[in-house]
From TrEMBL:
Gene3D superfamilies for this protein: D-Amino Acid Oxidase, subunit A, domain 2 (3.30.9.10), FAD/NAD(P)-binding domain (3.50.50.60)
Domain spans labelled FAD dependent oxidoreductase: 33-391
Pfam families: DAO (PF01266)
Keyword line: Oxidoreductase
Name of the protein in its database record: FAD-binding oxidoreductase
The keyword Oxidoreductase belongs to this UniProt entry's keyword annotation: yes
Domain of life assignment: Bacteria
InterPro entries, sorted: FAD-dep_OxRdtase (IPR006076), FAD/NAD-bd_sf (IPR036188)
Amino acid sequence: MTALPLDDNSCGWYQALPVPTSARVLSGEHNADYVVLGAGFAGLAAARRLAEHKPNACILLVDAQRVGYGASGRNSGFVIDLPHKFALEHPDPAHKQKLLGLNRAAIAQLQGLVEKHGIDCQWSHAGKYQGAVGERGEAFLDHFEHLMKDLGEPYRRVEKNELAGVLGTDYYNRAIYTPGCYLMQPAALVRGMAEHLPDNVELLEQSPIRTLTREGGMWRLQGDMGTIHTPQLLLGTSIFTREFGYLKNRLLPVMTFASWTRPLTDDELVRYGGQLDWGLTPADHAGTTVRMTADRRLLIRNTYKHVPKYGANVDESVRKKIRADHRRAFVARYPELAQVPFTHTWGGVYAISRNFTNFFGQLEDGVYASACDNGVGAAWGTISGTLLADLAVGADSRQLQDIRQVTGMPSLNPPEPFLGLGVKSRIMLAKWQSRSEI
């Protein structure tokens, strides 16, 4: 039995949106020229690009949940241009420049859609701060500055006093500001893109696919109340790709968590004393991400868990403990706002690989996938989904060549129970080592 997404119903980004109109659900028998499975950043981009290449083709975009309810609507709302974390350590400068070019192509594509369709998603060219609390964080920050110099990318050091004026807290010693990042409301962005799909793309939501089989040169996708037959299948299913038998034992399901406040009142905003619309990621990778949204909400994100059963691994008691951890991080930064409550605490599942390699390409005849974004889903999902459609229709380009050169096969994982014990131990060690930065 295919394990389906089991996300909590308390994602602040999604709950802040108006209730969507009724979903069109898979029912009966369908034949399609192309099927895209998964309507997140990758799936939306793939379906749109297929429609551009094949305006007369029948294209079905299918998701087990509502658009914006899953992983693409649960991130912290950064669209980052720079190679991310471990990719930034790559020894080949050309490799990093390819990643940079791909990410920036994704940002340009997203911005074009936001402007063309008037998508209300708090889209903002705000840049990004990478912050350090103490000596450990500052050591990471020094290393990041060295990497920025090697990459030849613009950045600016931001010292404590200036940083406090932006963040409304003197908790951080200093930061490095990089200008190429955009901020947005992720659930609003993906829903907005889904509402403006090309005419020959039909979106089916709340339509989980239970089985995938090959029949007479066609793929048969079996849902609860309907069936789809197609010769060409594109998977934008991230960690759930393994549920269809692909990349098994190569993807690690990890969940990260966030909490946010209600919008601050005018009085609270005065006590806060900082700016609106900024985002800070930790110099120490296991530290805390903080955002102030354009609509006055403060968001805290930290805590990672290995979730082999996805959302089933996280019950209310676990979420309550995580919420308490977030509360401590929030009050440490904003003691003058200690009375401001959190309204939502949520988690989101994504795929990483042990060798930090993204998969992109053809899995077998008629099946293509972009899987394992290693934590940078907005930009990577957008460009990889776009180029996956190019690959499926045979449209070559320099960008397609670049993405094939910077991706590969995620390494095999050790068997259970060794995998679970190892991942859990590594997460616990990282949390302990980074405790001063959380």
